[in-house]
Amino acid sequence: MTATRKDTQRPAGERERPAGERERLASERERPAGERERLASERERLTERFVLMQSELGGLLYEMAIRDHLQLDLLVERAAAMQRLEAELRALGPKAGTENPELETSPRSPC
Which of 27, 43, 44, 60 is 20 to 30 Å from 6 by CA-CA measure? Predict the structure, then answer.
């Protein structure tokens, strides 16, 4: 009978992390609590702003469409502003201790 070491086994579904990611996660745990809270609140504020901008962009498109008067330059300008905000959120993700910023950055439209 071969004994297995429990400390080397990972829970089902958990992947092995690359060394760089393990180091980053360890450094995130060492951040002062106040800084983690500040970063989390900043992330929440930016996420709420993104959701509002997304809703406003949809409403703007709807209003333009029902009036048959699309202004693509304005829509592109608003979409670019959303992309800048999304970039801020992605950059903030690792600093705020988000393990996978690609999955948790911003809400996605079901379209």
Answer: 27
